[in-house]
Amino acid sequence: MDTLEGLADPIRRVGVRIEGVVQGVGFRPFVHASAQRFGLTGHVGNDTAGVVIEAEGPCEAVAGFLTSLRADAPPLATVEQVDVVELVPAGGRGFRIVDSDTSGPRGPRGPRGPRRTLVSADSATCEACLAELFDPRDRRYRYPFVNCTDCGPRYTIVRDVPYDRPNTTMAGFPLCGECAREYHDPADRRFHAQPVCCPDCGPRLRIVDPAGRSLGADPVSRAVELLRAGDVVAVKGLGGYHLATDARSDSATAALRSRKHREDKAFAVMVATLDDARRLCAVDDCAARALVDRRRPIVLLDRRHPDGVADAVAPGNRRLGVMLPYTPLHHLLLRELAVPIVLTSGNVSDEPIAYTDDDALARLGGIADAFLVHDRPIHVRADDSVVSPWRGDAVPVRRSRGYAPEPITCSREFPRPVLACGAELKNTVCLASGRRAVLSHHIGDLKNAETLRSFTEAIEHLSRLFDIEPAVVAHDLHPDYASTRYALERTGLDPVGVQHHHAHVAACLADNGVDGADGVGGADDRAIGVAFDGTGYGLDGTVWGGEFLLATCADFERVGHLATVPMPGGEAAVREPWRMAAAYLRGATDGVDGVDDLAVARRQGARWDQVRRLLDSRLSMPVTSSAGRLFDAVAAVLGVRDTVTYEGQAAIELEQRADVGHSDGYEVGIADDGGMLVVDGPGLVRAVLDDHRRGTDLALVAARFHNALAAAVARTCREIADRTGVRLVALSGGVFANRFLLTRTVEALEGDNLTVLTHSRVPCNDGGLSFGQAVVAGARDRAMR
Ligand SMILES: [Zn+2]
Ligand SMILES: [Zn+2]
């Protein structure tokens, strides 16, 4: 009879290659610990493609080890692919971690290939580091740069790959003996944590006045004193400088607003704890999860009344952008201060956020009374991300710090690598290769020269970090966008022009994993895309922005839109919503019950008459089907806003004023113009005006307008569905950041048994446009093959 020994597991040796976010996230230590747990011998190392392992031991142990690679991976890791090859057992003792190899991938996959390793996003301080930060017996007690393999700076400090200390902005801080011991100890939480440091060897904090003179030896306590006294303090963060001040102080927040030349746009607030957030705002489960998420976005929350926050923080706003501390420095500041602070980007007006020390002192010198700074350089500028909780999802409004450069996995391969250059405002860029789309951090308004510089830097940096050499360059059709000009100037790449609203719809389809739709399979692949936004270059010489497209990811047909109206004064009509009120009411008659005795007409006086004459003349001017301009017109008619200081302001304020408890709306006409469905926007504005003149409460009129527009969208979609059999609807464009409109539209569409897709991974606004452009370019590439 066989003994148990005779049945012992045969020995097996495997070569393993792991790809994904597996460097700088404690993956090698994790592999090491796991190999030890299963009693295996071999080694683990990094190369430019990811992590490579050779492991040997009894079959069953090797199998358990392989399962644990995915199942037990460390919190910041994303395992995208595990390739295993069988090797000849070689014996040996122990399991080692070997040095990084920068020459290219080796091991199971053999020949050298492109870099496939991924740099992870920055991550909020973990619980273990936080405990050390506030433990008087710990050697990192109150040390503002404490971090480990589970947390800390990543993308914002990485200069190159592989992700090793010399390739980060920590290169100038040689490890002290104690930190080196932790760094080299496989059993330590800081094993191969590249930004590891301590008070003896790491970056130091200072507090200085705008002239660079020191303001004290204890920077955090000094900053707290200044904030308590109502001063504005510039604070160097993870991806750039913030401006901080006491959020409860009317004078401090008003001073910050006037010094920043920011007239109306709301400031974000940072509070110490989740409980503090609950004191200011209603926080449901979804919002709570978003607040404590390691990405630590700003979360848009419904305010409590009163919340104790000064009026100047978010004037007239029902919602407040709230975030929790995400660096050790924030934790130190907030715990000592124990009150909410405004924490807004360190810039003047619409400039990009300052991230280098010299630039911060130069540009913020006139705003901040003091600077809380340190000597760890920021390599990549990254603004705070913003999310809006909706139906249990934290929907991104701005996807930047904490998210970028985490790739978005698509359901179809990009046949050739794509660079997508995005739009003009809220710009992001996207590099796509394989099934991965890497969406950049928020770059901003490309009309600004410095932003344009960071646009090209971001393309070069991401292309290097992810080793994506694009063969195709996707761009908007607007010839005057800086991003379009850049794309067309790049030589050696195939340019692909993508219509703005088609890109929005494709972004929404791919956001939901239905980017397989490229028309190859016929009618079933199509979706009804509703793209509502401010401005986009149309195919017919008009400015689009209220569009119904029958679309695949590769192509589209325009099947409906909001009725076009003139834009008197062109671009001026974007800054001055009252002009759009005049345009929308141009068909209305003068005199008693006419439109020239309107409040908006009286407010504008002679200018109103001038624009009315311009509209009556035969002079040519741009015409638009933009939904953003429709909101502008209604906001002006209702006296909510005649002029704006930032994009989308009139629509945002109109939503704020609406009473969401009402569900009735106005009748909206939908005409069929030779097969093209045209939604009667002017009729809707007149209905709003009539209701308003009857003395109906503004909150009710605003609600009825939203409800009417949502119903009109749904009816138009149903008509398209009836004509084509297509029952999938994708909602995109910045106007759908309006939660009230989005909710009512989705309810109406679902009531008609249509399937509705909305955004959850990329913003519906132009911040998600580059992703959509990349998806379209990829789909066209596939269709051509
Ligand atoms: Zn940590
Ligand atoms: Zn140290």
Short summary:
This protein is α/β, with parallel strands linked by helices and 785 residues long. Helix content is 32%, strand content 22%.
Describe the structure.
32% of the residues lie in helices and 22% in strands. By secondary structure, the protein is an alpha/beta fold. Strands 6, 7, 8, 9, 10, 11, 12, 13, 14, 15 and 16 form an eleven-stranded mixed sheet that branches. The radius of gyration is 28 Å and the shape is globular. One zinc ion is lined by residues 175-176, 178-179, 197-198, 200-201. The site of one zinc ion has 7 residues, from helix 3.
Q: How is this fold's topology laid out?
A:
Blueprint: E1 11-21, H1 27-37, E2 41-47, E3 50-58, H2 59-71, E4 78-87, E5 95-97, H3 127-133, H4 177-184, E6 205-208, H5 219-228, E7 233-236, E8 241-246, H6 250-260, E9 268-270, H7 274-280, E10 281-282, H8 285-292, E11 298-303, E12 319-323, H9 328-337, E13 341-345, H10 357-364, E14 370-374, E15 386-390, E16 393-398, E17 408-420, E18 430-439, H11 449-465, E19 472-476, H12 482-489, E20 494-498, H13 500-511, E21 527-537, E22 543-551, E23 556-562, E24 565-566, H14 572-575, H15 577-584, H16 599-604, H17 606-616, E25 623-624, H18 627-637, H19 649-657, E26 670-673, E27 676-679, H20 681-693, H21 698-724, E28 728-732, H22 739-751, E29 755-757, H23 769-784
Parallel strand pairs: 2-5, 7-14, 9-12, 11-15, 17-19, 19-20, 21-28, 23-27, 28-29
Antiparallel strand pairs: 1-3, 1-4, 2-3, 6-14, 7-8, 8-13, 9-13, 10-11, 11-12, 15-16, 17-18, 21-22, 22-23, 24-25, 26-27
The chain binds zinc ion (2 copies).
One zinc ion is lined by residues 175-176, 178-179, 197-198, 200-201.
